[in-house]
C-alpha cells in the first residue's frame, strides 16, 4: 500500500507562494479552489476544475486538453494517477467523496459520488460509474460501459462480484472525508509547513487524533 512508503508532500492552496505546474491550454486555465490541497509535484493542464477539500497527491498528471475534467468536493487523487481527455467526447467527471488510488489511469468517464477506484485500474472513454461503486485493483473498464450503483467490480474486463449496502457506501463517504480532514489537521498543527516527511504511522496518528 502506498502509505507504507515514505513520501514528501507539499500542501498548498491556490493562494500559496509555492509554484506548481498549472498550464493554460487552448485558452483554458485550471480553476483550483483555495480550499483544496494540491502537491507542487503534480501537473494540472487545461480545462480542469478542482473543488473544495480535494486532495491531489504528488506525481499526478491531470490533462484536460480536449474536454473538461471536474473533480468534486472531498475527493482524493493519490500519487501517480493520470487523467487524460483524448477527444472532445472523453470528458472526465469525478463526483464528490471519491478516492482514486495510486497508478489509476482515466481516459474519460462519468463517475458518481462515493466511488473508490483501487490501484492500477484503467478506465476507458465514456464509461459511466454509479454511486458507491468499488473497482478493485488492476481492473479494466472498457469504453462505454455502464456500472450500476453500489456494485463491486473486478477483472479485465470488469465483472460484478457483489453488491454493497447503503451502510457500505456511507463508510466510503466517511473514508474520503477523513483523507481531506487529515490535511486540515496537518495545516492547523503545522501552519508554516511546506514540505514534510509523512510515514504511515504519522498518517494514522493524525487521522485518528481528536481535536483538542
Description:
With 212 residues, this protein is an alpha/beta fold. It has a single domain, classed as Hexapeptide repeat proteins (UDP N-Acetylglucosamine Acyltransferase, domain 1, 3 Solenoid), CATH 2.160.10.10. 16% of the residues lie in helices and 34% in strands. Strands 2, 3, 5, 7, 9, 10, 12, 13, 15, 16, 18 and 19 form a twelve-stranded parallel β-sheet that branches. The protein has an eight-stranded mixed β-sheet with strand order 4-6-8-11-14-17-20-21. It is globular and about 40 Å long. The N terminus is likely disordered.
Sum up the structure in keywords.
212 residues; alpha/beta; UDP N-Acetylglucosamine Acyltransferase, domain 1; twelve-stranded parallel β-sheet; eight-stranded mixed β-sheet; 2 helices; 16% helix; 34% strand; globular; disordered N terminus
What share of the residues lie within helices?
Answer: 10-25%
Sheet having the most strands: 12 strands, parallel
Overall SS class: alpha/beta
How would you spell out the order of helices and strands?
Answer: EEEEEEEEEEEEEEEEEEEEEHEH
Amino acid at each position: 500500500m502506498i502509505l507504507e512508503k515514505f513520501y514528501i508532500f507539499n500542501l498548498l492552496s491556490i493562494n500559496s507562494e509555492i509554484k506548481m505546474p498549472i498550464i493554460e491550454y487552448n485558452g483554458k486555465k485550471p480553476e483550483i479552489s483555495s480550499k483544496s490541497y494540491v502537491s507542487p509535484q503534480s501537473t494540472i493542464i487545461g480545462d480542469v476544475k478542482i473543488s473544495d477539500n480535494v486532495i491531489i497527491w504528488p506525481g499526478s498528471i491531470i490533462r484536460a486538453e480536449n474536454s473538461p475534467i471536474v473533480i468534486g468536493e472531498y475527493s482524493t487523487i493519490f500519487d501517480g494517477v493520470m487523467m487524460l481527455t483524448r477527444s472532445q467526447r472523453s470528458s472526465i467527471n469525478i463526483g464528490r467523496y471519491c478516492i482514486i488510488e495510486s497508478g489509476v489511469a482515466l481516459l474519460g468517464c462519468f463517475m458518481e459520488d462515493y466511488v473508490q477506484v483501487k490501484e492500477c485500474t484503467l478506465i476507458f472513454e465514456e464509461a459511466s460509474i454509479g454511486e458507491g461503486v468499488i473497482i478493485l485493483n488492476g481492473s479494466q473498464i472498457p469504453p462505454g460501459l455502464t456500472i450500476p450503483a453500489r456494485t463491486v467490480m473486478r477483472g479485465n474486463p470488469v465483472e460484478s462480484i457483489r453488491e454493497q449496502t447503503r451502510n457500505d457506501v456511507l463508510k466510503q463517504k466517511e473514508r474520503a472525508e477523513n483523507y481531506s480532514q487529515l490535511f486540515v489537521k496537518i495545516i492547523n498543527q503545522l501552519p508554516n509547513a511546506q514540505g514534510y516527511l509523512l510515514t504511515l504511522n504519522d498518517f494514522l496518528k493524525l487521522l485518528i487524533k481528536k481535536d483538542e
